[in-house]
Amino acid sequence: MASVSVNGRSYRHPARPVVVVCIDGCEPEYLERGIAGGSLPALARFGAEGAYRLARSVVPSFTNPNNLSIVTGAPAAVHGISGNYFWDPATGQEVMMNDPRFLRCGTLLAALAREGARAVVITAKDKLRRLLGHEMPGICFSSEKADQVSKDEHGIERVTDLVPMPVPGVYSAELSEYVLAAGLALYRRARPDVVYLSLTDYVQHKHAPGDPVATAFYAMLDRYFDAFDREGAVLGITADHGMNAKANPDGTPRVVYLRPLLDAVAGAGRARVILPITDPYVVHHGALGSFATVHLADAAACAAAAARLRTTPGIAAVHDRAAACARFELPPDRVGDLVVLGDRHTVLGKSPAEHDLSLLAEPLRSHGGVCEQTVPFVLNRPLEAAWAPGRAGDLRNFDVFDAVLNGVA
Q: Helix or strand or coil: residue 375?
């Protein structure tokens, strides 16, 4: 097979094994500080000998939309996963989009595997596993449930024999390390053609760039990147989103609660607020991010709500559905009448009573808006001069497979 076409893009079959890593929540400052401080020698080498750039992620800058964009090479308007949650008017319910039935296109991984490539996908959290591995013959499992794999469902048995560490808890740095350790073990054992490794942002939610815990975490990542490089892999590294501090000086979250504002202009209970960051792992962020959608009853309510929100400190922008979908390439049927974005240091909530913040042990760090859209884009091989991203001059995180398959020298 010379190439495969997926979602309007053509990819060469891997001539040598390729490994793509999505570092969840990787604000570029983590890498910049580590390289400057000497704790990331492999990434420093890649910057000198390969490629080190900055790219834009998908907005909302959340995990699920961006991981699916990376493996489909397309924005959410194409693949349909616009967040972790959306309001489904057909059922009248808030729905978590972790089921493959919500996907509207195929993935590059599945296409390559169907054409004979040996594919491996390992993700930290199980919420992504079925989406990333949809219709993909091959190995696909999560480190969260590595002790529950089966040949029929995951393409592999006894994952725990691969990694000399216990299966980690979901709220731990080790959950990401397990992904890398299992991926490296499988790479050494079977030399798969294409590997996708997706980490978790537990550390980034709790520790800012320069914090000793963050520095140690990235040094651990760097050791695995070095190992893959020395094993001969073509390695691409990017992120699903960045991360920013979202706390007041006293350490409490800096939140704009939308429901009281909307009730005041649209009438009590007439607005439905959807926070697409919501997932089963709210200890990270208390379901507080910098992107929200609002469903309202009529055009007059939309206009009044938009005017009120635009004058609220902490809110960076308010777009109607058409404008938001055009700007951020989102599927209109999975977006509210309004899209609301918090600024760099502000998150959006429903109402104080609807968020349990008792488990937030540190000042809040979160994501979701435009201010967390810039992410690293690193290759361990130089790019051919003729290679250009899918949109010339506009490098996106979901160009990474194009780069490792079509662009390396």
A: strand
CA angle (115 as vertex; 109, 121 as ends), nearest 5: 25
Give the residue among 5, 8, 58, 25 at the shortest CA–CA distance from 331: 58
- Report phi then psi at 340, rounded to 5: -120, 135
The secondary structure of residue 237, as a DSSP letter, is: E
What whole-number distance in Å separates Cα of residue 320 and Cα of residue 337? 6
What residue ranges define each of the domains in the chain, with the CATH number in brackets? 3-81+98-243+370-407 (3.40.720.10), 255-366 (3.30.1360.110)
**Token reading at 286:** 């208390």
Strands 51-56 and 18-22: unpaired
Cβ(253)–Cβ(347) below 8 Å: yes
Q: What is the pLDDT of residues 229-283, one digit of tens each?
A: 999 999 999 999 999 999 999 999 999 999 999 999 988 888 999 999 876 565 5
Res 132 pLDDT > 70 = yes
- Give the span between the Cα atoms of 82 and 102, in whole angstroms: 10
Query: Which carries the bigger pLDDT value, residue 354 or residue 380?
Result: 380
CB contact set of 173 (below 8 Å; sequence gap of 6+): 202, 203, 213, 217, 220
Nearest-angstrom CA–CA distance, 12 and 248 = 49
pLDDT band, residue 189 (cuts 50/70/90): very high
Q: Contacts for 99-104 with beta carbons within 8 Å, 24 or more apart? A: 99/130, 99/131, 100/130, 100/131, 100/134, 100/135, 103/68, 103/79, 103/131, 103/134, 104/78, 104/79, 104/80, 104/331
What proportion of the chain, given as a percentage, has pLDDT over 90? 86
DSSP sequence for 6-48: ETTEEEEPPSS-EEEEE-TT--HHHHHHHHHHTS-HHHHHHHH
Q: What is the pTM of this model?
A: 0.96
| Residue (of 217, 209, 238, 127) closest to 173 by Cα position | 217
Instruction: Answer for the pair 66, 81: CB distance below 8 angstroms, yes or no.
Output: no
- Residue 236 and residue 23 in contact, taking contact as beta carbons nearer than 8 Å: no
Indicate left, alpha or beta for 278 from its phi (over 0: left) and psi (-120 to 50: alpha): beta
- Strands 347-349 and 255-257 turn out to be parallel
Q: φ, ψ for residue 271 (rounded to 5)?
A: -105, 140
